[in-house]
Design a protein that fits this description.
Layout: H1 2-16, H2 24-34, H3 37-48, H4 53-60, H5 64-79, H6 83-96, H7 141-144, E1 145-148, E2 151-155, E3 171-175, E4 179-182, H8 188-195, H9 214-227, E5 234-235, E6 242-243, H10 255-263, E7 280-281, E8 307-308, E9 311-317, E10 326-327, E11 338-341, E12 358-360, E13 369-370, E14 374-375
Parallel strand pairs: 3-10, 7-8, 9-13
Antiparallel strand pairs: 1-4, 2-3, 4-14, 5-6, 9-11, 11-12
Helix pairs in contact: 2-3, 4-5, 5-6
Length: 376
């Protein structure tokens, strides 16, 4: 398997050039494409560490070797991977990101790279304005949405929580008004009915829609609002999208609303207690794919799949928490990444914790990114 891994890396370098590794997400996808059989599974597991807090420590702390050792131990414990191979892989990825020692596997020497044109997705054509259809009375909210009562909770995690990350500073947050949250993640059927498209990798009407960017989700919320005779919540475009908090249309939850709804009155790592298997799909139980919404147990407020299946986009720009008490916070004023919550089918279980935070550029799409909507 050592030789096979080296072959995969060399082939990727030959065909894509060293610039492949400038983008860790592109690196992740490309290496998975070049892998076969069991090695594909190991490469995907390994590359998923590129976006895990544990791996980010390699880039952001000076204690590189200690962190690398912990990742090697994780791979040995969770997947029974040979320690030497695990060390080789971690060394290589540290090298890719510009840290650590040079990789022990041979990398083919190639001439100075010739600029390579990477095909970009064609811009989406602007939709031709259409007459707004007559208002449609939406189905009873109680059948599709759960009422989330106003209240106060401790957002973040206590210092004693196992697998706690440094960006989970605990602080008091008040949600001042009731709101309705989708009982399930938005399905492919729902998305197709509104947008007329479905870019999901895993296909099925009742599977969560995925491979959607934050901008795609904003378009969906407004389109569904117009279709049902509601006032769209969002206006503007690009980085200048604004939210009309008085609108009655569909929207994304704020990060605070999401965690409040996920916890449903609990203070444990998961809404289901100290274990998430009964409530969420993760790498250890998903079979490397998404699952129909609602097949795991709901939390105390009737919400399904708040843990795992697909990451869920939130409204907020990602930023550090305030340590003081807050009411209806909406995240950082500006930023480059939007918040993601809940974990997904290809994450370790610890990333499904109620307090765990992740983020991504609003243009990013992948087969583990979905969303759910809320209404006032």
């Amino acid at each position: 398997m050592d030789a096979q891994f080296g072959t995969i890396i060399n082939k990727a370098v030959q065909e894509h050039g060293v610039d492949l590794f400038a983008d860790t997400r592109n690196c992740r996808v490309t290496l998975a494409d070049y892998a076969e059989g069991k090695c594909q599974r190991e490469i995907r597991r390994l590359c998923s560490l590129l976006e895990a807090d544990a791996y980010k420590q390699i880039i952001t702390t000076q204690d590189i070797e200690l962190t690398k050792d912990r990742l090697v131990q994780d791979m040995f414990n969770q997947y029974s991977m040979d320690r030497n191979l695990a060390q080789e892989m971690i060394d290589f990825l540290a090298f890719v990101c510009g840290k650590g020692a040079a990789p022990s596997i041979p990398i083919i020497t190639i001439p100075p790279p010739v600029p390579i044109h990477v095909a970009q997705p064609a811009p989406k054509p602007k939709p031709t304005p259409q007459p707004i259809p007559p208002p449609v009375v939406p189905p009873p909210r109680s059948s599709l949405f759960m009422r989330i009562p106003a209240g106060t909770f401790m957002m973040g995690s206590p210092a004693s929580e196992v697998d706690r990350a440094g960006n989970e500073v605990q602080h008091k947050v008040t949600i001042s008004r009731d709101f309705y949250m989708g009982k399930y993640e938005v399905t492919q059927k729902e998305y197709q009915e509104v947008m007329g498209t479905n870019s999901s990798y895993f296909r099925g009407d009742n599977l969560p829609v995925e491979n959607v960017s934050w901008y795609d989700v904003i378009e969906y919320c407004n389109a569904r609002s117009r279709k049902e005779g509601l006032t769209p919540a969002y206006s503007g475009s690009g980085a200048s999208i604004s939210w009309n908090r008085n609108a009655n249309g569909y929207r994304l939850p704020t990060e605070a609303e999401w965690e409040y709804a996920c916890r449903a009155g609990t203070s444990t790592p998961y809404s289901s207690g100290s274990s998430v298997d009964s409530a969420g799909w993760h790498w250890g139980n998903s079979g490397e794919k998404t699952h129909p919404v609602g097949t795991k147990q709901a939390n105390a407020w009737g919400l399904h799949d708040m843990h795992g299946n697909v990451w869920e986009w939130c409204w907020d720009w990602y930023g550090d928490y305030s340590t003081s008490s807050q009411t209806d916070p909406t995240g950082a004023a500006v930023g480059s990444n939007r918040d993601l919550r809940g974990g997904s089918w290809d994450c370790y279980a610890r990333y499904l914790r109620s307090a765990y935070r992740d983020r991504s550029a609003p243009t990013y799409c992948y087969d583990n990114l979905g969303f759910r909507v809320v209404l006032p």
